[in-house]
Amino acid sequence: MRVFLRAAALAVSLILSPIAVQAQEPPTLAEYGKLPDVEEAVLSPSGKRLAVLTNIDGKRTVVAVEDRTKLVSRFEVGDLKIRWMEWIGDDRLLMVTSRTQDLGYNFTTDKAEFFTARVLPMAEGVEGGLIFGNRRELVDAIIGDYGIRNIDGRWYGFYGAIQLTRSGRMEYEFDHGRPYLYRVDLQDFSVKKIANAARPGHDTDWLIDAAGEVAATLDIDDNTGEWDLRGPGNGVIAKGVNRGGRVGLVGLGYDGTSVILAERGENGIEWYEVPLAGGAMTPFLADVDVDRVFFDDSTGHMMGYLEGART
C-alpha cells in the first residue's frame, strides 16, 4: 500500500512538474524538515475503506475514505506519537499512540513510555472509546497487543494491562508492572481478565486462538532462564533452559494446532514447532532463511513467510 501511494504521488508530481534539463540546487534545510506526505496507510478487512495518516497543509491528519473517493472521516492529530493504526471491521479504527510519563521516586527509572489504544467510530451509531479508560483499577495503557477477533459477530481485542491494588475505599495504587491479560469488548468496552500476571521474577507471554481463548502460555524464569510452554489446558507441552532468557513465541502454526517458538543460541536463532495437544518439539523451517512471517489477523494462524537472501 505504501509503495502504491508513493508511486501515485510520484506520478502526480511528474505530470504537474516541468521536466528539468539542468542540474538543480540541493534541497534547503526547511525542505528536509518537512513532514512526510504519508506516514501510515491501513486497509480495512473488506478492502473497501482506507485510512491514511498524511500531511495536509502542514497539519498531520488522519483521513478515512471509502471506494477511493468517498470521505468517511477526517481529523487532525497534531504531534501525537501514533505507533500504528488498525481497522476493526469496516466501522471502527484502532489508533495506538504513546506518551512519555514521569514515574516518581518509587520506581527504578524516572520515565517510561506508555501506549494507549483508542477506538475511533467510522460509522453512525458506533461508539468510540479508550481501551481500559473506564476502569479505575486498571491503568489506561496497553502492555502488549494480542490481536483482535470477531466472535459470533462481536469484536474483541486482547491486551495486557497493569492492574492496580485498592489502597482505600475509592483509591488505587501501583502494585507491580507485570501485566494481566484482558479481553476487551470493542462495542461497549467492558473487560474480562482471562490470564493472570507472571509470578515475581518471571515473564509471561500468550497466544490467542481464533475463538478468543488462550492457546499457549510461555513462562520464563528471569534468574535461571528456565522456561515452560503450556497449552490450552495449562498443561506443559515443552520446556527448556536458555540462560539469557532469549526464547519467545512466534505465533500459531498454519492450522492453529501448533505453536511456533524461537530460541537464540550460540548458532543464532532457531525455530521450533510444538503441537498444542502435546508431542515432540521439532525444528521449523530449519533450512530456510526467514526474513518475515505473515499471520492471519482474524485467527492468529501463520499464513506464510518471506525468504531472505543468505549471506
Task: Give an overview of the whole structure.
- With 311 residues, the chain is mainly β.
- It is built from 2 helices and 24 strands.
- Strands 1-2-3-4 form a 4-stranded antiparallel sheet, with helices on one face. A 4-stranded antiparallel sheet has the order 5-6-7-8, with no helix packed on it.
- A hairpin with a 2-residue loop joins strand 20 (258-265) and strand 21 (268-275).
- The two termini are 29 Å apart.
Task: Give the topology, please.
Blueprint: H1 2-16, H2 29-32, E1 38-43, E2 49-56, E3 59-66, E4 70-76, E5 81-88, E6 92-102, E7 111-121, E8 129-130, E9 145-151, E10 154-161, E11 165-166, E12 172-173, E13 180-185, E14 191-195, E15 202-208, E16 214-221, E17 226-230, E18 236-241, E19 247-252, E20 258-265, E21 268-275, E22 282-283, E23 290-295, E24 302-307
Antiparallel strand pairs: 1-2, 2-3, 3-4, 5-6, 6-7, 7-8, 9-10, 10-13, 11-12, 13-14, 15-16, 16-17, 17-18, 19-20, 20-21, 21-22, 23-24
Short description:
This protein has 311 residues and is mainly β. The chain contains two helices and 24 strands.
- Number of beta-strand segments: 24
Supply the helix-strand structural class.
Answer: mainly beta
Radius of gyration equals 23 Å
Helical stretch tally = 2
Q: Record the strand order, biggest sheet.
A: 1-2-3-4
Gap between N and C termini = 29 Å
Helix content: under 10%
Low-confidence stretches: 1-21
- The averaged pLDDT comes out at 85
Order of helices and strands: HHEEEEEEEEEEEEEEEEEEEEEEEE
